[in-house]
Amino acid sequence: MSSDLNQKIYVAGHRGMVGSAIVRNLQAQGYTNIVTRTHAELDLRNQAAVQAFFESEKPDQVYLAAAKVGGIYANNTFPAEFIYDNLMVQNNVIHQAFLSGVKKLLFLGSSCIYPRLAGQPMSEDALLTGKLEPTNEPYAIAKIAGIKMCESYNRQYGQSHGIDYRSVMPTNLYGPGDNYHPENSHVIPALIRRFHEAKVSNAPEVVIWGTGTPRREFLYVDDMAAASIYVMQLDKSIYDSQTEPMQSHLNVGFGSDVTVASLANAVSAAVGYQGKISFDTSKPDGAPRKWMDSSRVNHLGWTPLVNLDAGLKKSYADFQKTNPI
Ligand SMILES: NC(=O)c1ccc[n+]([C@@H]2O[C@H](COP(=O)([O-])OP(=O)(O)OC[C@H]3O[C@@H](n4cnc5c(N)ncnc54)[C@H](OP(=O)(O)O)[C@@H]3O)[C@@H](O)[C@H]2O)c1
Fold first, then answer.
1. What is the pTM of this model?
2. Is the CB of 69 under 6 A from ligand 1?
3. Tell me: the pLDDT tens digits for 67-111?
């Protein structure tokens, strides 16, 4: 074990929400040799720079949590950037990791790889069985290519070079380091900001778009980091028992979902907002349900530790730290 703790580990995207949680968790486990570069120091779209980085650092393991990430508005407005940046980042990192002798790599994807009309809960087998949601198709195509990059390198070089590149697909994540931007954030940080602002201004009511009935799944980011490291550390024979060479990704979700209405109530309680919550039913609801089947990763021995109420309290504390009144 002590030799493992000396492994040189490169966490790509260490200032992002997931990458920073992975670094926190690795440090808590006693890993001391963690390599990082900010976006300004190393643009992962730049092939020559990524090659030079891997040649000089020669890490043993890589967590690939760097990506261009955004909500519906950003995905719709910048589709070229979403496909180009993500393909370049992951192609450069995976290929240069291989060339420099990295044996273990974990690629982080997303639940948007699954078809728009996938059955619920969405299982790993739903990949490539139907049309994607058009709003984030370019991003999803890049993420699917990332899974297939890992699989193809394993299939061609797994035996000859002893490489083992794995992929995890997180559900919606929230927690410290989230993006609380008023227009361009995911549902939980957006609700935290809205309920916080309503509390501070004594607003009598917060209006939520839609009927409140759609169901969504959320996972606290430290649970995602723990799952990532758990999956990376699994013996190959155990990982292989729940995956196939060309179906090698694992879903990582909370295991159950909540309605938007109960989410709004839970955020309101975490923030301490006393006013009323109402629903503007003239606004669209989106998909009725988005929920991942995480039974494979559960069978492998990982389950989440932080429930929604506890996670929201921690998230609100993080919001208050980063957004003082
Ligand atoms: N957040 C979620 O709900 C969620 C859900 C499912 C999957 N995921 C996946 O988890 C991974 C991490 O997401 P996250 O939420 O942690 O995103 P994030 O907070 O936006 O972090 C992404 C990190 O990647 C860096 N990065 C982006 N482009 C880069 C480039 N060209 N060169 C170097 N660094 C670059 C960013 O740096 P800058 O900020 O400086 O650009 C940032 O530090 C992604 O693959 C995402 O698809 C996230």
1. 0.96
2. yes
3. 999 888 889 899 999 999 999 999 999 999 999 999 999 999 999
DSSP letters of 128-166?
A: TSSPPPGGGHHHHHHHHHHHHHHHHHHHHHHHHH--EEE
DSSP 24: H
Contact (Cβ atoms closer than 8 angstroms) between residue 231 and residue 168? yes
The first and second tokens of residue 17, run together, are 């929400």
Which residue type sits at 161? H
Atom of ligand 1 nearest to the CA of 173: 3
Does residue 180 carry a catalytic annotation? no
In this structure, of 176-180, 304-308, 311-315, the range with the lowest mean pLDDT score is 176-180
Q: Indicate which residue's Cα is closest to atom 41 of ligand 1.
A: 39
Contact 287, 217 (CB under 8 A): no
- Number of neighbouring beta carbons within 10 Å of residue 144: 20
How far, in Å, from the CA of 86 to the mean position of ligand 1? 10
Angle value at C-alpha 249, between 246 and 254, nearest 5 degrees:
155
> What's the CA-to-centroid distance between 154 and ligand 1, angstroms?
24
DSSP H or E segment with residue 222 = helix 221-233
Q: To test the ligand 1 pocket, which listed residue (15, 18, 167) has its Cβ within 8 A of the most ligand atoms? A: 18
Look at residues 250, 257, 256 and name the one whose alpha carbon lies nearest to residue 299: 250
Cβ neighbours of residue 48 under 8 Å, at least 6 residues apart? none
Parallel, antiparallel or unpaired: strands 258-259 and 215-216: antiparallel
Instruction: Find the 208 Cα to ligand 1 centroid distance in Å.
Output: 27
Bridge-partner residues for 169, per DSSP? 251
Three-state SS at 38: coil
CA distance 102 to 88: 19
The atom number, within ligand 1, closest to the CA of 20 reads 16
15 CB near ligand 1 (under 6 Å): yes
How far is it, in rounded angstroms, from Cα 228 to Cα 225? Answer: 5
Contact 140, 87 (CB under 8 A): no
